[in-house]
Each structure stands twice: as structure tokens, then as C-alpha cells.
Write a structure and sequence with these properties.
Blueprint (H helix, E strand, L loop, with lengths): L2 H12 L3 H17 L14 H10 L1 H4 L7 E4 L7 H7 L4 E5 L2 H14 L5 E5 L12 E4 L5 H8 L8 E6 L3 H8 L3 E9 L7 E10 L2
Parallel strand pairs: 1-2, 1-4, 2-3, 4-5
Antiparallel strand pairs: 5-7, 6-7
Helix pairs in contact: 1-3, 2-6, 7-8
């Protein structure tokens, strides 16, 4: 997917208003400027941020359209996918990030995007957060699936939808997790990268 393809997809699939696109552009400028101070995204993706990061995040939105309620994004890092979800929808989104410099960046990004009314940041390790159920949980490059479920299952119910962007190792992660976990698990292709996939989980529970 080219950068032009990415912007075309946003318009066709989500009908993103021009003002929102302008705020995302400002966020991406902030992201690139911050790159001189900390490694937020791979340098090889700087020229492909709309496809590799914005649309890669935004493609989760149609997958969750039947699930209303609050969204939890774990290991938010540079803000993908959580900040993009907050920018493109009216959902209440909670970002979780433990690294201090990343949190400072995310606070500035929330202000730049103008989403402070619906996006909140928890500067803490996932393990220290109180157990609260969310409608949707996302995590990008946070941890292998079995480890992620181990630390985050307490934020879910049988109705929670998990949307987890993964690389080419997605099938292996799913197989490994199935030894300890059960539920409705499937894999969807990523629209941005033929080598990537999205793990879609619901009714997640530990095997007895």
C-alpha cells in the first residue's frame, strides 16, 4: 500500500473529515520531530507512516463496529493504534504506557490531536492497573500472545473483542497460546502488509 493508497482508503472506508486529517498530519509531524530524541517507530517506516502506522491502526475500526464501549490500548508507545482510534472515532480510549519519555510524547500527541475529551493515558505497567472490563482491547508489538493474555485477560469479559496486529509469526503465536487459552480465535489479513495479520479473539478464557 502506497501513501496515496492509504489516504484514499481512509476517505473511502471511514470518510475522514479534512479537519481530522489535518490534525493527524500535525501529529505525524510531531512524531517525526520526536524521532530525533527517542526511537518511537522504525526509521525505515518514516516515509510510509500513513500506510504502515495510520491505516495499519485504522483498519481495526471496522472490525470493532459491532462492539460499543470503551477501548483499551496496551503498550501504546508512539500511539498506534490507540491514538488513531481516538482520532477517528468518538470512543473512549485508554492508552497504557510505562516508559516516561513515551508518556510525555503521548501527552503532547493527545493535545495535538485534540482528543483529550475521549483519550486518557495511564502511565503505568499493565500489571499494576486495577482490573476493569473493556469492550475492545488492542495491543501492537506489546508481547507474544500467550504473555499478553496472561497479563491482560483480567480486563476482558466473554464479550470483549481483542484486536491484535501481528507480523508473519501470527499463526505460531496463536498455536502457542492455544495450549493454555481457549475461545473464538481467528486470523484476518492486514490490508497494509501481506506479511502481517490481525489476531481477532473473543470469549478468551484459560484452559482448565
Amino acid at each position: 500500500m502506497t501513501e496515496e493508497d492509504a489516504r484514499d482508503w481512509l476517505n473511502a472506508a471511514l470518510d475522514v473529515p479534512r479537519g481530522t486529517l489535518d490534525r493527524i498530519k500535525a501529529f505525524l509531524t510531531l512524531l517525526k520531530e520526536e524521532g530525533s530524541r527517542q526511537n518511537l517507530i522504525s526509521a525505515s517506516t518514516l516515509d510510509h507512516v500513513w500506510a504502515r502506522h495510520v491505516v495499519d491502526s485504522a483498519q481495526l475500526i471496522p472490525l470493532a463496529e459491532e462492539r460499543s464501549g470503551d477501548w483499551l490500548d496496551l503498550g501504546s508507545g508512539a500511539g498506534f493504534p490507540g491514538l488513531i482510534i481516538g482520532a477517528l472515532t468518538q470512543r473512549q480510549v485508554t492508552l497504557v504506557e510505562s516508559r516516561r519519555k513515551r508518556c510525555a510524547f503521548l501527552e503532547a500527541a493527545i493535545e495535538t490531536l485534540g482528543v483529550g475529551d475521549r483519550v486518557s493515558l495511564r502511565s503505568a505497567r499493565v500489571e499494576t492497573l486495577p482490573s476493569t472490563a473493556f469492550s475492545v482491547i488492542s495491543a501492537r508489538a506489546f508481547a507474544p500472545l500467550d504473555r499478553l493474555l496472561d497479563v491482560a485477560q483480567r480486563f476482558s469479559t466473554a464479550e470483549t473483542l481483542w484486536l491484535l496486529p501481528k507480523g508473519r509469526n501470527a499463526p505460531n503465536e496463536l498455536d502457542a497460546a492455544r495450549t493454555s487459552w481457549q475461545g473464538d480465535f481467528r486470523i484476518a489479513p492486514s490490508i497494509t502488509d501481506p506479511d502481517s495479520a490481525i489476531l481477532i479473539l473473543s470469549d478468551v478464557r484459560r484452559r482448565r
